[in-house]
Amino acid sequence: MTAQTHRIAQTPAQAVVFLETLAELVEQSPVTYSPGAAADLAAHIRGMAEAVTTEAHVHLPALDITRQYAALDWHNEAIAVLFAAEHRPMFH
After folding, report:
1. pLDDT of residue 2
2. Which residue has the higher pLDDT, 49 or 91?
């Protein structure tokens, strides 16, 4: 039996959305950093996303669609976690 490698092609739009999502996570969860440091790091990450958008000439409609799919993926992941059997007792 041969091992199959599943790989999703990465696009500049996906990189931008990843960076934007990472910035939001850093900003909303400043566990390791102070709130000011978390905001600074998030701003730096957003700057990286802007640089990728500009330098890679990301097609803006494709970026918007990628953002929509990413938001849907996060929503679906959150719903899956909330309704997982081990979390159900917490809702009573």
Report:
1. 54
2. 49
